[in-house]
């Protein structure tokens, strides 16, 4: 676990492979279909979920999509995974973590409404120390379908306060882009967070990251858990 601790702190992120129990994943996948079917009032299944969500997006039915997402990510089934991540974080950092937020990244192949530009999580939670988990739902997250990328090690910059706010329109995501982003892109290597089902990534509140363009025919879904907790780097632990 010390190795994971050091990796996390030097890269600002850590991928754990083949680790989420299938039974938990299956439970939330099932819940995804039932919640989306109920909320969007159309039968959503493994075959049609991309098309249905893209059709809603095309028709600017953003509120309906948001309502389905909120219902899904606040369901009992979804929240039940928080204990799993809390345990993982406790193992690595020897600290307790408290759930503060859940969500889901949706990578749409013909819209950037839900695509974040380079940002840190810190400006969203300026007064709280937070840690973030992401994992693929239904199918893998890779470079082709626009998985997030990180500037490896950029957490070393600390909280970057000089940012430009970017939001395409009121119902689009809001990114806090560091004003010196071009400098940071030169300084740190971009790493794509490729994940198969059952993998997850945890990332530091100060690592710079973004959504990438989805060049596949299916949408990308990545579930998100955010926790509050103190995981400050303690160099003594490396000895
Ligand atoms: O996966 C993505 O599209 C980016 C998600 C993100 O920025 C986050 O989870 O904080
Ligand atoms: Fe983010």
Blueprint of the fold:
Elements: H1 2-11, E1 13-16, H2 22-40, H3 49-58, H4 62-73, H5 76-79, H6 82-93, E2 98-107, E3 130-136, E4 149-151, E5 163-167, E6 174-178, H7 181-187, E7 190-192, E8 200-204, E9 209-210, E10 220-228
Antiparallel strand pairs: 1-8, 2-10, 3-8, 3-10, 4-7, 4-9, 5-6
Helix pairs in contact: 2-4
2-oxoglutaric acid is lined by residues 105, 107, 116, 121, 132, 134, 148, 209, 211, 222, 224.
Cα end-to-end separation: 13 Å
Q: Tell me the CATH architecture.
A: Sandwich
Gross geometry? globular
* CATH class wording: Mainly Beta
Bound molecules: 2-oxoglutaric acid, fe (ii) ion
Low-confidence stretches: none
Which quaternary structure do these chains form?
single chain
Strand element count = 10
What is the chain-wise order of helices and strands? Answer: HEHHHHHEEEEEHEEEE
Q: Tell me the count of domains.
A: 1
CATH 4th-level superfamily: q2cbj1_9rhob like domain
* Order of strands, widest sheet: 1-8-3-10-2
Cα Rg: 17 Å
Number of H- or I-type helical stretches: 7
Mean pLDDT, as a whole number?
Answer: 96
Structural class call reads alpha+beta
The profile of the biggest β sheet is: 5 strands, antiparallel
Strand content: 15-25%
CATH topology category name: Jelly Rolls
Helix amount, in percent? 25-40%
């Amino acid at each position: 676990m010390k190795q994971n601790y050091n990796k996390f702190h030097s890269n600002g992120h850590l991928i754990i492979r083949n680790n989420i129990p299938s039974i938990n994943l299956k439970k939330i996948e099932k819940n995804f279909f039932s919640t989306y079917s109920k909320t969007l009032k159309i039968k959503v299944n493994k075959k049609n979920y991309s098309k249905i969500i893209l059709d809603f997006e095309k028709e600017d039915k953003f509120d309906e999509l948001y309502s389905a997402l909120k219902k899904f990510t606040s369901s009992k089934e979804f929240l039940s995974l928080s204990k799993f991540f809390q345990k993982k974080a406790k193992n690595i950092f020897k600290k307790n973590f408290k759930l503060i937020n859940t969500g889901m990244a949706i990578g749409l192949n013909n819209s950037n409404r839900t695509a974040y530009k380079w940002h840190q999580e810190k400006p969203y939670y300026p007064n709280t120390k937070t840690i973030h988990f992401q994992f693929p739902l239904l199918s893998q997250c890779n470079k082709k379908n626009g998985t997030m990328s990180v500037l490896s090690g950029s957490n070393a910059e600390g909280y970057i306060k000089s940012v430009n706010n970017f939001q395409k329109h009121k119902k689009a995501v809001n990114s806090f882009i560091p004003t010196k982003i071009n400098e940071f892109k030169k300084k740190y290597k971009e790493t794509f967070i490729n994940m198969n089902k059952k993998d997850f990534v945890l990332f530091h509140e100060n690592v710079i990251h973004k959504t990438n363009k989805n060049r596949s025919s299916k949408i990308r879904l990545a579930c998100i858990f955010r926790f509050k907790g103190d995981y400050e780097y303690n160099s003594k632990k490396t000895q």
